[in-house]
Amino acid sequence: MTHAQAFDAAFARCPLVAILRGVKPDEVEPMGDALVAAGFTIIEVPMNSPQPLDSIARLAKRLAGRAIIGAGTVLRVEDVDAVGAAGGTVIIAPNANVKVIAAAAERGYVAMPGIATPTEAFAALEAGAAALKLFPAEAASPAVLKAMRAILPKDTRVLPVGGIVPEVLPEWTKAGAAGFGLGSALYAPGMSAEEVGARAAKFVAALAVV
Q: Bridge partners of 180?
Protein backbone atom coordinates (compact mmCIF):
# COMPACT_ATOMS: atom_id res chain seq x y z
CA MET A 1 0.00 0.00 0.00
CA THR A 2 1.35 3.41 -0.94
CA HIS A 3 1.46 6.33 1.50
CA ALA A 4 -1.35 7.95 -0.47
CA GLN A 5 -3.51 4.83 -0.26
CA ALA A 6 -2.85 4.51 3.47
CA PHE A 7 -3.82 8.15 3.95
CA ASP A 8 -6.99 7.72 1.89
CA ALA A 9 -8.00 4.73 4.02
CA ALA A 10 -7.28 6.59 7.27
CA PHE A 11 -9.15 9.66 6.03
CA ALA A 12 -12.16 7.53 5.09
CA ARG A 13 -12.26 6.14 8.61
CA CYS A 14 -11.94 9.51 10.33
CA PRO A 15 -11.38 12.77 8.39
CA LEU A 16 -10.07 14.64 11.43
CA VAL A 17 -6.43 15.69 11.75
CA ALA A 18 -5.17 16.07 15.31
CA ILE A 19 -2.67 18.95 15.51
CA LEU A 20 -0.32 18.53 18.48
CA ARG A 21 1.43 21.90 18.35
CA GLY A 22 3.89 22.22 21.21
CA VAL A 23 3.85 18.55 22.23
CA LYS A 24 7.08 17.16 23.70
CA PRO A 25 8.61 13.80 22.73
CA ASP A 26 8.35 12.39 26.25
CA GLU A 27 4.56 12.91 26.31
CA VAL A 28 3.59 12.28 22.71
CA GLU A 29 3.01 8.52 22.87
CA PRO A 30 0.24 8.66 25.51
CA MET A 31 -1.37 11.45 23.45
CA GLY A 32 -1.26 9.25 20.39
CA ASP A 33 -2.78 6.34 22.26
CA ALA A 34 -5.60 8.54 23.55
CA LEU A 35 -6.36 9.93 20.09
CA VAL A 36 -6.44 6.51 18.46
CA ALA A 37 -8.66 5.19 21.25
CA ALA A 38 -11.10 8.02 20.49
CA GLY A 39 -11.16 7.09 16.81
CA PHE A 40 -8.56 9.41 15.25
CA THR A 41 -6.40 8.01 12.45
CA ILE A 42 -4.34 11.06 11.37
CA ILE A 43 -1.98 12.93 13.70
CA GLU A 44 0.17 15.96 12.93
CA VAL A 45 3.18 17.25 14.87
CA PRO A 46 4.03 20.80 13.75
CA MET A 47 7.68 21.44 13.01
CA ASN A 48 7.74 24.37 15.45
CA SER A 49 7.13 22.00 18.34
CA PRO A 50 9.99 20.90 20.65
CA GLN A 51 12.07 18.22 18.86
CA PRO A 52 9.30 17.48 16.35
CA LEU A 53 11.17 14.79 14.43
CA ASP A 54 11.64 12.82 17.64
CA SER A 55 7.91 13.00 18.35
CA ILE A 56 7.06 11.99 14.79
CA ALA A 57 9.41 9.00 14.98
CA ARG A 58 7.91 7.86 18.29
CA LEU A 59 4.35 8.12 17.01
CA ALA A 60 5.16 6.44 13.70
CA LYS A 61 6.65 3.46 15.52
CA ARG A 62 4.04 3.20 18.27
CA LEU A 63 0.97 3.68 16.06
CA ALA A 64 2.14 1.78 12.98
CA GLY A 65 -0.89 0.28 11.26
CA ARG A 66 -3.26 2.29 13.45
CA ALA A 67 -2.65 5.92 12.50
CA ILE A 68 -0.98 8.02 9.82
CA ILE A 69 1.62 10.47 11.15
CA GLY A 70 2.52 13.75 9.53
CA ALA A 71 4.33 17.00 10.13
CA GLY A 72 2.82 20.46 10.13
CA THR A 73 4.35 23.85 9.41
CA VAL A 74 6.67 22.27 6.83
CA LEU A 75 8.12 25.34 5.14
CA ARG A 76 11.28 24.06 3.42
CA VAL A 77 11.99 21.35 0.87
CA GLU A 78 14.78 19.93 3.04
CA ASP A 79 12.28 19.38 5.85
CA VAL A 80 10.28 17.02 3.64
CA ASP A 81 13.12 14.50 3.63
CA ALA A 82 13.72 14.91 7.35
CA VAL A 83 10.07 14.21 8.10
CA GLY A 84 10.09 11.18 5.81
CA ALA A 85 13.20 9.80 7.48
CA ALA A 86 11.45 10.08 10.84
CA GLY A 87 8.46 8.10 9.58
CA GLY A 88 6.09 10.92 8.71
CA THR A 89 4.13 10.53 5.48
CA VAL A 90 1.90 13.62 5.46
CA ILE A 91 3.45 17.02 4.72
CA ILE A 92 1.22 19.81 6.01
CA ALA A 93 1.84 23.55 5.77
CA PRO A 94 0.08 26.84 6.51
CA ASN A 95 1.00 28.09 3.03
CA ALA A 96 1.06 26.88 -0.56
CA ASN A 97 4.77 26.65 -1.38
CA VAL A 98 4.71 24.80 -4.69
CA LYS A 99 8.29 23.61 -4.24
CA VAL A 100 7.44 21.91 -0.92
CA ILE A 101 4.24 20.45 -2.37
CA ALA A 102 6.02 19.07 -5.42
CA ALA A 103 8.86 17.65 -3.30
CA ALA A 104 6.38 15.80 -1.11
CA ALA A 105 4.41 14.47 -4.07
CA GLU A 106 7.56 13.36 -5.91
CA ARG A 107 8.62 11.33 -2.88
CA GLY A 108 5.24 9.66 -2.60
CA TYR A 109 4.12 11.56 0.49
CA VAL A 110 0.76 13.24 0.99
CA ALA A 111 0.92 17.02 0.61
CA MET A 112 -1.70 19.10 2.41
CA PRO A 113 -0.79 22.78 1.95
CA GLY A 114 -2.63 25.75 3.35
CA ILE A 115 -4.69 27.88 1.00
CA ALA A 116 -6.91 30.94 1.42
CA THR A 117 -7.88 31.75 -2.18
CA PRO A 118 -8.89 29.92 -5.36
CA THR A 119 -5.61 31.01 -6.95
CA GLU A 120 -3.60 29.29 -4.21
CA ALA A 121 -5.90 26.26 -4.32
CA PHE A 122 -5.41 25.64 -8.04
CA ALA A 123 -1.66 26.24 -7.84
CA ALA A 124 -1.41 23.75 -4.97
CA LEU A 125 -3.40 21.10 -6.82
CA GLU A 126 -1.29 21.55 -9.94
CA ALA A 127 1.86 21.08 -7.84
CA GLY A 128 0.56 17.75 -6.52
CA ALA A 129 -1.44 18.49 -3.37
CA ALA A 130 -3.58 15.57 -2.21
CA ALA A 131 -5.81 17.74 -0.01
CA LEU A 132 -6.13 21.42 0.86
CA LYS A 133 -6.09 23.10 4.26
CA LEU A 134 -8.35 26.17 4.32
CA PHE A 135 -6.35 28.31 6.73
CA PRO A 136 -7.03 30.24 8.80
CA ALA A 137 -10.67 29.20 8.81
CA GLU A 138 -11.41 32.11 11.15
CA ALA A 139 -10.65 34.43 8.22
CA ALA A 140 -12.96 32.52 5.91
CA SER A 141 -16.49 31.16 6.37
CA PRO A 142 -18.66 28.28 5.21
CA ALA A 143 -19.94 30.63 2.50
CA VAL A 144 -16.40 31.15 1.23
CA LEU A 145 -15.80 27.41 1.18
CA LYS A 146 -19.07 26.82 -0.67
CA ALA A 147 -18.01 29.31 -3.34
CA MET A 148 -14.63 27.59 -3.70
CA ARG A 149 -16.27 24.18 -3.95
CA ALA A 150 -18.27 25.41 -6.93
CA ILE A 151 -15.09 25.88 -8.99
CA LEU A 152 -12.65 23.31 -7.58
CA PRO A 153 -12.52 19.76 -8.97
CA LYS A 154 -15.33 17.83 -7.31
CA ASP A 155 -13.00 15.29 -5.68
CA THR A 156 -10.86 17.99 -4.00
CA ARG A 157 -10.66 17.48 -0.25
CA VAL A 158 -10.75 20.79 1.63
CA LEU A 159 -10.22 20.84 5.40
CA PRO A 160 -10.96 24.01 7.38
CA VAL A 161 -8.29 24.58 10.04
CA GLY A 162 -8.26 27.25 12.72
CA GLY A 163 -10.88 27.90 15.37
CA ILE A 164 -12.75 24.66 14.69
CA VAL A 165 -14.87 23.40 17.60
CA PRO A 166 -17.40 20.53 17.62
CA GLU A 167 -20.38 22.88 17.31
CA VAL A 168 -19.35 24.23 13.89
CA LEU A 169 -18.77 20.91 12.13
CA PRO A 170 -22.31 20.66 10.66
CA GLU A 171 -22.22 24.13 9.06
CA TRP A 172 -18.80 23.62 7.49
CA THR A 173 -19.66 20.09 6.34
CA LYS A 174 -22.82 21.35 4.66
CA ALA A 175 -20.67 23.90 2.81
CA GLY A 176 -18.43 21.14 1.46
CA ALA A 177 -15.73 20.49 4.04
CA ALA A 178 -14.31 16.98 3.59
CA GLY A 179 -12.68 16.98 7.03
CA PHE A 180 -11.08 19.22 9.62
CA GLY A 181 -7.75 20.04 11.23
CA LEU A 182 -8.09 20.49 14.98
CA GLY A 183 -5.65 22.59 16.97
CA SER A 184 -6.07 24.32 20.31
CA ALA A 185 -9.65 23.12 20.78
CA LEU A 186 -8.23 19.59 20.87
CA TYR A 187 -4.74 19.96 22.33
CA ALA A 188 -2.73 22.62 24.09
CA PRO A 189 0.64 22.21 25.83
CA GLY A 190 0.23 21.09 29.41
CA MET A 191 -2.90 19.04 28.83
CA SER A 192 -2.99 15.41 29.94
CA ALA A 193 -3.58 12.51 27.58
CA GLU A 194 -6.91 11.93 29.33
CA GLU A 195 -8.03 15.48 28.60
CA VAL A 196 -7.02 15.18 24.96
CA GLY A 197 -8.83 11.87 24.66
CA ALA A 198 -12.01 13.35 26.10
CA ARG A 199 -11.89 16.29 23.70
CA ALA A 200 -11.14 13.96 20.80
CA ALA A 201 -14.19 11.85 21.63
CA LYS A 202 -16.39 14.96 21.49
CA PHE A 203 -15.15 15.79 17.99
CA VAL A 204 -15.70 12.23 16.79
CA ALA A 205 -19.22 12.24 18.27
CA ALA A 206 -20.00 15.58 16.60
CA LEU A 207 -18.78 14.29 13.25
CA ALA A 208 -20.94 11.18 13.55
CA VAL A 209 -24.14 13.22 13.64
CA VAL A 210 -23.23 15.58 10.78
A: 16
Q: What is the mean pLDDT of the chain?
A: 97
CA distance linking residue 25 with residue 30, whole number of Å: 10
Q: For residue 201, which of 36, 30, 66 has the smallest C-alpha distance?
A: 36
Write the DSSP string, 79-140: HHHHHHHHT--EEE-SS--HHHHHHHHHTTPEEE-EESSHHHHHHHHHHT-SSEEE--GGGS
Dihedral, CA atoms, 59, 60, 65, 68, nearest 10 degrees?
A: 90
Whole-number pLDDT of residue 209:
86
pLDDT of residue 210: 79
User: How far apart are alpha carbons 157 and 133 in whole angstroms?
Assistant: 9
Residue 133 among the catalytic residues: yes
Q: What's the distance, Cα to Cα, between the start and end of the chain in Å?
A: 30
CB atoms within 10 A of CB 44: 30
Q: What share of the chain is helix, strand, coil (3-state, %, to 5)?
A: 50, 15, 35
Model pLDDT for residues 75-117, shown as the tens digit of each residue: 999 999 999 999 999 999 999 999 999 999 999 999 999 999 9
Look up the pTM and report it: 0.97
Q: Which of 44, 61, 138, 194 is an active site residue?
A: 44
Q: Which of 29, 61, 133, 171 is catalytic?
A: 133
User: Which DSSP helix (H) or strand (E) runs through 70?
Assistant: strand 68-72
